[in-house]
Design goal:
Helix content is 15%, strand content 33%. It has one helix and six strands. β2 and β3 (26-28) form a beta hairpin.
Length: 93
């Protein structure tokens, strides 16, 4: 993420069957960490990693142009728990 971080949430999550889809490496599964950041540009970004790994991957569909970062973080956690190649949640219109 470029520029200063305005808000950030980070939680561990067990991916459901089919895992989470990333731009860099495709689907990842297992014990993951989700980091959601909201910047001063209003964009909400989602990154995932294998828990305790060094590499972070972009959750497909990230960034979201606008929305409530906390609510979007919760929605992304639910999606990853459900699996099925989870992608970044869409911000409400």
């Amino acid at each position: 993420m470029t520029g200063p971080v305005r808000y950030q949430w980070q939680d561990e999550v067990l991916a459901g069957p089919g895992g989470a889809m990333t731009d860099e490496v495709g689907v990842i599964t297992g014990e993951l960490t989700l980091r959601t950041t909201g910047g001063p540009d209003g964009k909400v970004r989602f990154e995932v990693q294998y828990t305790d790994a060094d590499e972070w991957y972009t959750l497909t569909g990230s960034p979201v142009a606008h929305g409530d970062p906390s609510g979007l973080h919760a929605a992304a956690l639910r999606a990853i728990r459900a699996g099925g190649g989870a992608e970044a949640p869409a911000a409400p219109a």
